[in-house]
Amino acid sequence: ETGVTQTPRHLVMGMTNKKSLKCEQHLGHNAMYWYKQSAKKPLELMFVYSLEERVENNSVPSRFSPECPNSSHLFLHLHTLQPEDSALYLCASSQVGYATGEGYTFGSGTRLTVV
Amino acid sequence: DAKTTQPPSMDCAEGRAANLPCNHSTISGNEYVYWYRQIHSQGPQYIIHGLKNNETNEMASLIITEDRKSSTLILPHATLRDTAVYYCIVSGNTPLVFGKGTRLSVIA
Fold first, then answer.
1. What stretches of B42-98 show up as alpha helix (H) in DSSP?
2. How far apart are CA A1 and CA B67, in angstroms?
3. CA-CA distance, A94 to A82, in Å (whole number)?
4. Cβ atoms of A112 and A13 closer than 8 Å
5. Alpha carbon distance A29, A97 (integer Å)
6. CB–CB contact A48 B95 (8 Å)
7. Which of A88, A80, A73 is nearest to A38 (CA)?
8. Considering A9, A62, B43, B70, which has the largest number of Cβ atoms within 10 A of its Cβ?
9. pLDDT digits (tens, 9 = 90+) for A93-111
10. What torsion do the CA atoms of B51, B54, B57, B60 make, to the nearest 10 degrees?
11. Chain A positions in Cβ-Cβ contact with residue B31 (cut-off 8 Å)
């Protein structure tokens, strides 16, 4: 257990479904991130929240919708996904001003399969 | 962010030191060098970071050259559980961007 918990661990959804991924951190961090890792590819940064405000959106399609209701929780709402969206979705947290700290703490990820 | 260059793969015998190189020739003065590793299908794990000086913790040592254009991560006594992809990242106050890393295989 890293202090960052992601649920569910595995998710299979149809292209017309709506689902949500949840991330919770118990580390007192004030920044949270979503990354996507497709098969045999590097991690891709999707969204950044700092002090509960979205500060970065790396040209992610609108079928992915993040939500950060407080500094401990981060959601990724999914709708009308495509099979190519199948990937490992990773959540991370850190302190703002992370260059002086231990960097990011990652969760174990949600393995998403779109059928 | 400054880019890093790492060899795609390396092998290391169990019990020996694993030395993983990283080139970051365009690093800026306020950017740190971070190392993470990712064991198959898990989230990346922080290993160590540094700015100028060499650093050591319970997991590894980080050696940064004087000109800061390259660094080496040292796992002093590699075990089979150290088999993973190792990422070298340089970052100041911007989100971490991961490259392809080095796939380290520790062989019995």
1. none
2. 38
3. 30
4. yes
5. 11
6. yes
7. A88
8. B43
9. 998 765 545 689 999 999 9
10. 100
11. 99
CA distance A87 to A41: 10
> Chain A partners of B102 at a C-beta cutoff of 8 Å?
none
Q: Which of A43, A77, A80, A78 is nearest to A58 (CA)?
A: A43
Alpha-carbon distance of A113 to A111, in angstroms, equals: 7
Collect all residues with Cβ–Cβ distance below 8 Å to A57 and sequence separation of at least 6.
A46, A47, A48
Residue labelled with tokens 């002086």: A100
DSSP label of B31: P
Residue that has been written with the tokens 């399609």 in this structure: A61
HSE, side-chain direction, 13 A CA sphere, residue B68: 16
Q: Which two tokens stand for residue A95?
A: 């302190």
Per-residue pLDDT of chain B (108 residues; tens, 9 = 90+): 558 999 999 999 999 999 999 999 999 988 899 999 999 889 999 999 999 999 999 999 999 999 999 999 999 999 999 999 999 999 887 888 899 999 999 999
Q: Which two tokens stand for residue B7?
A: 């060899």
Selecting from B43, B49, B97 the residue whose C-beta is nearest the C-beta of A45 gives B97
